[in-house]
Design a protein that fits this description.
Shape of chain A: globular
Number of helices of chain A: 12
CATH superfamily of the largest domain in chain A: Dihydrodipicolinate Reductase, domain 2
Strand order of the largest sheet of chain A: 13-12-11-10-6-9-8-7-14
Number of strands of chain A: 14
Number of domains of chain A: 2
Largest interface: C-D, 43 and 43 residues
Oligomer: homotetramer
CATH topology of the largest domain in chain A: Dihydrodipicolinate Reductase, domain 2
Radius of gyration of chain A: 20 Å
CATH class of the largest domain in chain A: Alpha Beta
């Protein structure tokens, strides 16, 4: 099977998520990175390309140059990964979609609703595919959970509790020049704070697993760190189309929390509890029976979870493997194969944009309900 | 030191909490049960008294008879434990307070605001003391947590996340004649569902530990079980006097949860995480340092937590010991000794009544904020 | 039901295990402490008795006086708890047995083989009963485990891994005058170090649960703390009558361990894992199925575990309740009731003495096998 | 930096460890797989090579052809990964070493002492380097542990408890034609059972972390599964050069255990506890202080653990990343860079061979001590 040729926009030296995408794309050996517009700073772009062993000719000064040039090459890239700050998602994505090149875009979709609208139009107009890397959907046990809910193992869902707590912004890190903190806390670049950076992951995940849609939310957003221009803590209540209720707590000031994404979903007959920091285990409770410890690839699981597991149970897979699974799936989709699980794309992106804007709208109205 | 003479109202055969109070009162050997009005059913009252080895003369047909007779005896009871359903707290408590007998009352304070007002007046008018058994405040690590917050170990508090999840009412147990379920789901007897039965514990606990006061709440209450007349699931957002934000999730339909009371409190410099089901451990995080596992009576704790621990660390104490600590403290208070920690009483009870009524008022207004 | 009258030998001020026995005897209200020879120091004996509210007339200067006097009283004690250091178990136990008074003796049986022989003869000659407080057998999940093994849930047992690790003797505490450390590290008073103090508990527990008998052991004993006269660390390999293999690690110098008694038992078809520090949970694995989390009194357990549980699942019971269960069972046995689980007595005591002496004999032969 | 050219011997279709080596070699993008002798079956070799996108010309029928041809090419491989069953490690390793090509060999070193001697001679005679993939040494927290022990954080080491428990051989899987089970339980191919397959990992790891050397061991080996020709359970006692004591339990019949490699190391002043199945956490206890939870890349760690961590704390890395770290280090070593941690090679391999043979020798003498 031919490796797909991958380009990258953003992800130069100092980038966090760019390196993650590159490792993720390599793990299952379905992509080969061959081109990039790695930085808006030409020197950094060139140095980054050299470090990665790219052909200097395919290290571009801008994403528009890159889209044009790669589309014109017989050996041009099949897909591009866009790993820039949020406000720079839409423009390159549109450029590549218009050039007929598949787009793999980091989340959230965009920084503004206007950008999202433009991108949505481009996706619909293009023959190329658009993928959004809500990477936590790549964890095998998350897919197992989704299957279990879908086939009714838990009965009708009643309550969904999600949370995503970190502490890296408990202090004004943006005031120190930290690159990651700076753009994430600048409303012009990020569009939102904790709700966009991590809240969207939690929101996406609970929808992915439950198959349910939030129809209303009430959000109490707050900035605890003095001078911060975006929310760093959010308490959110949710109502779902099915009648289920739920809550999301997203915080970047929760001292002691590293990357505390956690999902609990309760139905009439059963429940599932999963935490990202030890993603190879999930607790499955059935009413009136002892709780079970499900493990990735372990005893008693359905076929679903096995598909995306590379090493036997007890040999932990982690964040990079979960991310890699999205790349593996994308390669399969682009090769015309059935993947067996939905892949986040435009719809998930627009859903996340609704979440962000509904939170902000609710907060502006003292946490009143915002109905979709 | 003379054992205090204890009476009991309620707690006859089939009672859950009556037996708990009796064990709790025995563990530290400061009380002796000598009288009771154990049931409103005379036969059950007599049978229960016989089982407990009470003098038949001191097994009373009613709490009013008991209050009068015990007050008149030279060896009358020092204190009475009231362990009846919520709507039967106020009347006996008032009777004993008026008779000059100390009252140890189960929570919540009462089933209605009118009952609470009457009881509050009686407490203020009496020389006798009134205690409310918010038993989870008796856990040594909860007291350790309170001390740590009070002395500033965590810095200014930002976020408080509490939850209390159970699953025993995931099905319509009240329809089966189950006694515990029946009165707890009857609004006339309980006054509220999950928010009163368990939510008040969570609310009390977060106030006890944080020393902070909720000034506003928004509550989305729901009954998932068909035909149920009280709430069985509650999502609640909180705002505190200090500016902190928080949330409580209380549910009695959370399949797989036994008695999942959990408290997390985050300050500027540190956080604490504690779960009732393994109460001998608490996680203490300090910003920029590895998390610590504090243990009851264990290495590195302050004097506070040692006072209420009976056996060395690693020898687990549990629910009954935590409950017993309230009885121990009450005995000390009644003996004029300093206890070293606040004991829940009328104020905590009224605070809980505010919580219940504010939740109901908020829910009636589609989860609008209710400000204290 | 009449409360049984209990006496106590040892357990005066400063005793650890005496206070534990007293609480344990009170929890289920089946015993009343009425007499004692609480200390060999007359002043301390009197002061201790006064603190406990004993009738001064029934505070004795010696166990022999006590045995004689109590046997002669119409309201004399039914049973005596012996909570002295190991070398002082045999003499009082024999005295009370000869006086026809039931004996509840702390473990291990005695400090020497000669004492054990004498005590065994007395037990056999007496109509009174002899109980040994291997208290960890009182945990409900231990009894659940025993039932599960007995009825074949695990299939034929293959491997048993037990350990008991503490750190309180990681430093020469005995050199500081610490009373608990001093007698436990004095061979004349204790007869052995870690193997006697805690190793016997592990050995007893694995036999209790497995129903199997160790037929050979090889022990590598060591004293890490300079100047210590008894073992403070032991690695022990075991062979069982059934063909199963096993190991015990007992250590009192394992920094970070509080009271780390842990048992794992593996059969052909299943396994159980239990740790004393969180005794309300046990992991049950069945070959080819997800592991289950069994909880005390929780969903899906057999009748066995329910019998010895006082509060619902999720309301943790601990060390004192486990200990209390032995007292509850003893009260039932002495009242002629069926208990439903074996209670440790002389046989368990002699088994423990074999364990201690076999370890010492093996260690003296450079850890050669000692065959029973 | 030029990617190193990698070849592979073994690892064709159906291989477990070959796929692991390939992923591990890709994660950090320092190797490119360009040649292979992937199977002794020519058809499977060709099909496997095609699947992996190898140039057909560089898919060889035998390792000897491959060594000769690659050594002769200007663009020949820099290193070869040998991922065959144990008895087929020595011959290819020697061939490539003699051809001047670096060798990355799976563990254990060989199946027999004679093979080990021959290989050792070849390593010493060659200018090429020899690496042994004891992959668990690549976990960042294992390297953190090693540093902490080396700089004395724990004080003098007293006790080391290691275990490696699995259950996949709890039934006679080898009788079903399972390829992995078949060669591992065939003495001619594997040389040993559980002690070679997993025991050597535990033995290697405890030496790696402690820096101590076992000078004597006593091993009780057993085969529980009927008809099995190698050990499937091992209880091993250890004595170390420093005077420390320890134990290893290795089992492949421990129902409920997936890949339970666990290490605990106790010194005079501190201890460390680590378990492979959740490798991103390690408990660090200091005498008289609360235990700490160290996390990979997390707060308060030394520089050491940061070097080998790709994503921030809370983003779990797993088995593949730990394995990849060995490949990363090997690339650095072959590029003349300092690595900062020892890499397992011939010495570790010979140490493992001593362990295996000493276990077998001890078992043959009824678990007598075997002194190095």
């Amino acid at each position: 099977m031919r490796r797909l040729r991958l380009g990258m926009v953003g992800g130069g030296q100092g980038s966090f998520i760019g390196a993650v995408h590159r490792i993720a794309s390599r793990i299952d050996d379905r992509f080969e990175l061959v081109a990039g517009a790695l930085s808006s700073d030409p020197d950094r772009a060139a140095a980054s390309a050299a470090e990665l062993g790219l052909d200097p000719e395919r290290s571009y000064a801008s994403f528009s140059d890159m889209a044009a040039a790669e589309a014109a090459r017989p050996d041009g890239i099949d897909a591009v990964a866009i790993v820039t700050p949020n406000h720079l998602h839409a423009a390159p994505a549109i450029a590549f979609l218009e050039a007929g090149i598949h787009v793999i875009c980091d989340k959230p979709l965009t920084a503004t609703a206007a950008q999202a609208d433009a991108l949505a139009a481009a996706v619909k107009a293009s023959k190329a595919r658009f993928f959004l890397t809500h990477n936590y959907t790549g964890y095998p046990l998350i897919r197992q959970a989704r299957e279990m809910v879908a086939r009714g193992d838990l009965g009708r869902i009643r309550v969904i509790q999600a949370e995503y707590a970190q502490d890296w912004l408990a202090v004004p890190l943006e005031a120190t020049g930290n690159k990651q903190a700076s753009w994430r806390t600048d409303p012009a670049q990020s569009g939102a704070g904790a709700i966009g950076d991590i809240g969207t992951h939690a929101f996406n995940l609970l929808g992915y697993v439950s198959g349910d849609h939030a129809v209303a939310l009430a959000a109490d957003l707050h900035s605890f760190v003095e001078g911060r221009q975006v929310d760093d803590n959010a308490q959110i209540m949710l109502r779902f189309a099915s009648g289920a209720r739920g809550a999301i707590w997203a915080s970047q000031v929760a001292v002691g929390c590293e990357n505390g994404l956690r999902l609990r979903i309760y139905g009439e007959r059963g429940s599932l509890t999963w935490a990202q920091e030890n993603p190879n285990e999930m607790i499955y409770a059935r009413l009136g029976e002892p709780r079970q410890i499900l493990t990735r690839g372990g005893a008693g699981l359905g076929v679903g979870a096995d598909r995306w597991t590379r090493v036997p149970p007890g040999h932990p897979e982690g964040y990079l493997e979960g991310f890699a699974t999205l790349y593996l799936d994308i390669a399969d989709v682009l090769s015309g194969k059935d993947v067996g699980a939905p892949l986040p794309g435009l719809e998930a992106g627009l859903d996340g944009m609704w979440f962000i804007s509904a939170c902000q709208q609710s907060a502006a109205a003292d946490a009143a309900w915002v109905v979709r």
